[in-house]
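Hi R.,

As promised, here are both runs. First protein below:
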Amino acid sequence: MKLNKNIILDAVNNNVVSAIAEDIKNIDKSSTLVPSNINGVAIVKANQKAILCGKPWFEKSFKLIDKGITCQWGIEEGQEFKKNQIICTLHGKYNKLLEGERIGLNFLQTLSATATSTNILVKKIAQTSSVLLDTRKTIPGLRIAQKYAVKIGGGLNQRLGLYDEILIKENHIKSFGSIRAAIENVGNNNYQIEVETIGELIIALECGAKNILLDNFSILKAKEATLINKGKAMLEVSGNINIDNILDYAKLGIPRISVGAITKNIEAIDFSMIIDTI
């Protein structure tokens, strides 16, 4: 299953509703101290260089608090921005801008971080035939949001969830007793199987597997795997891959490289929002 407009819109709404319930519930006890007749203008500024991502979530955070809030963007989704650059300007009731500030920025800082970490690796392997994919190692509740951010950063999506596609991993194989038994139990070719050794790769190929994940293969073992495979199956490599070694794996000609770190090891992008009365 691929991300589409409806899946993204549902995620935006569900994520923001949950975030508002978590932060405000029925009242913002601080913002209610501010008179409701005061209007404000808020400027969101970047405190570091990064890739922008999360505009739908940011805008929804304010619209669900007050439909009267407007937002003008100075940066497009997926565009790189510089330190001290103005990202957007909001107009609305001062107290309502205060209510949405942290909720909106939380989405922006998290999804921009995901897109940025993805883009760094995508650029690293841009001159090869390999593509970068995400995993299910995402922040709970933000699966769709982070997979959206991966695409904004130039990466590709794996399955959206367990309901989506079959991936036979180590613990599944243990339950069947062997790779052969596990593959026989699937009953079709619409699956991916994880192997941890060259021996397991050979068995998977003998069983007719067409989509094989090389889990935690060293560069030397991955090279050996490509020579054994000879194009029989689609190969993917994953595990302990980072900015320092991803190009070495890509140069082997392995079509797919999946990296969990682009969604789970992110460092939030630093934004600030300053509000003034008008």
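And here is the second one, sequence first, then its structure tokens:
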Amino acid sequence: MTRLSPYRFAGRTAVVTGAASGIGEHVAHGLAARGSDLVLVDRDALRLDAVAERIRAAHPGAAVETLVADLADRAAVIRTAEGIRERHPAIGLLVNNAGVALGGRFDQVSLAEFEWVMAINFTAPMLLIHHLLPALSAEPGGHLVNVSSLFGLIAPPGQSAYSSSKFALRGLSEVLRGELLESGVGVTTVHPGGIRTRIAQSARIGEGVPPDQVDEQQRAFDALLTYPPEKAAEEILDGVERRRGRVLIAASAKLPDLLARLMPVGHMRLIGMLTAAAGRGARAGAAK
């Protein structure tokens, strides 16, 4: 069986989506510190430019290119990928990190909302991989990172679109891990737990969710996000260097993964009980 040597960061170009904040921002900083040149992609031009300026100031030797793109727009994704490939015929690393969330039961979200999540969380990474694979495999030792989620390990009620997209990305990653091995390209699937990022602020709530439940759902989602994104980024880059096939970040991902393995059908009931108990404890503490 083919065994890949450790990934070499220095002197190679890395493409990172969702680079304007959170995990993507810290992955970009970590890559620059390891000697990589960067192509950073995000839809938020102001935040993206600020990230790029901080990286340039901290790492003057790093080449940092920024691209503003709405990954919900299929044509924009293809244009972005083709432009990257034209300017960078060989890249070392592609990190598909950008993602969005949508709360609400399946019957509470519209088809347009569901498809918006799938477009950004699954279709965009798939298109980027497809168009950039020749560049990723142009030189030996390339690597692909797809950031799935805790909800690519378990599928709780109220996360039909998000879990569907993250399970799909997980499945694609696992297929590619086997298919790309002989060509010398490694694949890492990342399953973050509750990472302290802006995803709660940018999350949408399904149009059919009652108004009195919107704030409650957003607060509950935000309360789960406690793990530092800089630590998550370091764990991802360590996984890339070691060519790990899967990286689970934080106990909030590792414990549910274990329960899902031990109790393939009944794990969600137990997780729901534990989550409800934790929520009651948090509310009691806040009331004191």
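A quick note on the second one: Strands lie at 13-17, 37-42, 64-68, 93-96, 102-103, 143-147, 186-192, 204-205, 246-249. Let me know what you think.

Best,
J.
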